[in-house]
Specification:
Two copies of one chain form a homodimer. Mean pLDDT of chain A is 78; it is low at 126-131. Chain A has a five-stranded parallel beta sheet with strand order 2-1-3-4-5, sandwiched between helices. Chain A is elongated, with a radius of gyration of 20 Å. The longest helix of chain A is centred in the last third of the chain and has 14 residues, at 196-209. Chain A is of the alpha/beta class. Chain A has helices at residues 15-27, 38-48, 64-72, 91-100, 112-124, 160-171, 179-187, 196-209, and strands at 7-11, 31-35, 52-56, 81-86, 104-107, 135-137, 140-143, 148-151, 154-156, 176-178, 214-217, 221-224. Chain A has eight helices and twelve strands. In chain A, helix 6 (160-171) crosses helix 8. The first copy, chain A, binds a DNA duplex through residues 159-162, 193-197, 199-204, 216, 218-219.
Chain lengths: 226, 226
DNA sequence: TTCCATGTTAACATTAAGTTTACACAAAGT
DNA sequence: ACTTTGTGTAAACTTAATGTTAACATGGAA
């Protein structure tokens, strides 16, 4: 194996379900957290930043759909996987959920086996998102907490977009980021900006950093390298 | 725009389903191929290497489950997404399918909307670059994530088409790729380019790589070998 | 409000990538 | 040996992507 255990948050108002599903997921090696309503789910989500959130649609205080909506509006949960548990097998709500950013559906009454299988299937193909940590590459340090870039001892402050751009590229040095990837990561999935916007920001960043550390891969995207 | 359209192969013995679902997926911007039984599905899968395969469980000649099993045993289809269409809502076969490597289930009778939503949801969270595999052949490494070719420790960057060409050939060392195959894989099925285009790119690649690893098979095509 | 920093767009310049052309060559068939 | 067919090569050419600049838009702070 590798890496740390995946964190899963289950939110459902029926204690039985929390217990049974929780038990089985833990047996599979996941780190399980539970919440008994929508508000608690949101709080715990913020605290533990789970890799997967399983939401009952029908919950007190906030429904699963509402919770999903709120989470998806925050960058932190942009890439978190969400599975809905629902008794409603009607098409409309399924579509609504999926288009809102849910990743899968499991209909109640739940079969633990099916759920576990789906969870496993889901994680089988994900590679975990890196946490917002300080990045150090050679002479360059990028500190997302202080919002600072340090080059050869000299500190400089970048504009928000500029910073997010460098941070993204530098988060995986050498890896090429497609223009779409950059767009969706830095600008968001629904925002529509012109073609040259990325270029201009790339240019600004290159200018400010002084060092030539961003390479263009024509027809593909950009990458950061030492 | 960006990258090529995702390729989807649908296999079902009911022509109606092929037509309706196919039509709708094409409308969503996917490149759709169809097959009417298991054997045809396997053949087409090999030819077009789809990004997603939608398999009816109940099909003549070979069932969807069998097709899935065969595909999954081949490295080429290790990471291809597979969705089952099934009338059987019984748990057992769902679990069997998921554990065999299917990525999702849609129960018949199919709702086109639900299927489309699921397909979109599936592609939405894939990071195309991370599913691409690094190729290592002897002294040569081809890294589609970093978009780099490394020969005996020396890194070099190729142009997009050049890279795609090497990557294709190197993905199956020794295997001969027909000129048609190369065209459809690297240039796409609808693009029309002259006869000498491939040659010229082959030449550029040979030049840049320095090493002589691409063999001409006259009257047939090209192959990559150590 | 006014100012300033940031973000976005548009227009144009520049460069790289891709394609075609034209011809030279080499192998296979006659 | 000669012709045919398919491939190699270089250079001219076309297309597409990115770089660059400047102007405009926006939103928050003074």
């Amino acid at each position: 194996m590798e890496g740390k255990a995946k964190k899963i948050l289950i939110a459902d108002d029926e204690p039985d379900i929390l217990e049974i599903v929780g038990y089985n997921l833990e047996k599979e090696g996941y780190e399980v957290h539970t919440a008994k309503d929508g508000i608690e789910a949101l709080e715990k989500a913020k605290n533990i930043t789970p890799d997967l959130i399983i939401l009952d649609i029908m919950m007190p205080r906030k429904t699963g759909v509402e919770v999903c909506e709120i989470l998806r509006s925050q960058p932190l949960f942009q890439d978190t996987f969400i599975i809905f548990l629902t008794a409603m097998s009607d098409e409309a709500s399924q579509i609504k959920g999926l288009e809102m950013g849910a990743d899968d559906y499991v209909n109640k009454p739940i079969s633990t086996k099916v759920l576990i299988s789906r969870v496993n299937a889901l994680f089988r193909r994900i590679n975990p998102k890196d946490t917002d940590k300080l990045i150090r590459i050679g002479e360059i340090t990028i500190d997302p907490v202080k919002f600072l870039v340090n080059i050869k001892g000299e500190e400089m402050i970048l504009a928000k977009k500029e910073f997010e751009l460098v941070y993204l590229l530098a988060s995986r040095p050498g890896r090429v980021f497609l223009r779409n990837e950059i767009l969706s990561q830095v600008w968001g999935n629904d925002v529509i900006v012109g073609d040259r916007t990325i270029d201009v920001h790339i240019r600004k960043v290159r200018q400010k950093l002084g060092v030539d550390c961003i390479t263009t891969v024509k027809g593909v995207g950009y990458k950061f390298d030492a």
